[in-house]
Amino acid sequence: MIQLRMLEHRLLRYLGIAAGCFIASCSINLFLVPAHLLTGGATGIAIIFYYLAGLPIGLQTFLYNVPLLAAAWKTLGRGYTIDVIVGTAIFSFCLDITRVLNAYSPIQDVMLAAIFGGVFNGIGYGLVFRMNGSTGGFDIVGAIIKKFYSFNMGGVIFSFNCLIMIAAAFLFGVAPAMFTLICMFMNAMVTDKVIAGFNSRKAVLIVSDRAEAIAEGIMEVGRGVTFLHGQGAFTRRERNVVFVVVTLTQVAKVKMIANAVDKNAFMIIMSANEVMGRGFSSPGVRVGNVIRRYEEHPDEQKT
């Protein structure tokens, strides 16, 4: 039974990776190539030679990844490399079978092509990365360099992509390179959103002399609260710090409760892209009732 579940999980992973590769490939052939734009990584190099000599983008991408995959097998291990081989093979295949979309580009404006190409590329790559997959290319280079030199992987990949943009500027002019940077920016933004999930949360820290009263008010609108131990560095005074994770629509409610209980409360609101655990349900009580009670009885439940 366990082996069957593991097999199902792996199958779903590979289906997700295949879907992501297909979306990214369609985006490249539908938006970027007709507008004479590029993308990052080994695919960007392949597109340059496609413009210069008409060589198939997918086949080039796979061939450029062969020495990188060999290096990954020796340095990063079998498990990592197998997943990258699968992603690279699927992506390379999809790039060439979707080549017919070059003739059906729905957008003639280069700026729009860069924006939409980046968005759909981000959706595709984000889906691949969310399934813990990879399409190879500079991801492998970045992983190898990070292992031996402790460099930031994102910085390494960005540096190599900058070299591609410089080469493109010399070969095709500055304008295509600049539009490609817009595409890459959109790609990165959407990829991060897909990986982290669109259902983002907010983590709230509240420092107040009336932490218990604030916590009770927040719990009455359906959110669980945790007390953290805090101590003022200057005053050495100990107090509880309220910690709560809320949805975007509940941030205003928490702020209103904290302000109603203690107008001098110190509050920090931070992004929490993914929250897992019990108790994350919609509030069952109107926040107005809680705030009204504290406004009518400001001295209630002093800490």
Give descriptors for this structure:
single chain; 303 residues; alpha+beta; 4 strands; elongated
Account of the protein in words:
The chain contains 11 helices and 4 strands, in the order H-H-H-H-H-H-H-H-E-H-E-E-H-E-H. It is α+β, with helices and mostly antiparallel strands and 303 residues long. The chain is elongated and about 80 Å long.
Question: What's the topology here?
Answer:
Blueprint: H1 2-32, H2 41-53, H3 57-75, H4 78-97, H5 110-130, H6 138-149, H7 153-172, H8 174-196, E1 201-207, H9 211-220, E2 226-231, E3 238-247, H10 251-261, E4 266-272, H11 287-296
Antiparallel strand pairs: 1-3, 1-4, 2-3
Helix pairs in contact: 1-4, 1-5, 2-3, 2-7, 3-4, 5-8, 6-7, 7-8, 9-10, 10-11
Major pleated sheet: 4 strands, antiparallel
Low-pLDDT windows of residues: 281-285
Mean pLDDT: 84
- How many whole angstroms does the radius of gyration measure? 26 Å
- SSE pattern, N- to C-terminal: HHHHHHHHEHEEHEH
Helix content: 55-70%
Ends distance: 54 Å
Number of helices: 11
By helix and strand content, what is the structural category? alpha+beta
Name the beta content range.
5-15%
Strand order, sheet with most strands = 2-3-1-4
Instruction: Give the number of DSSP strands.
Output: 4
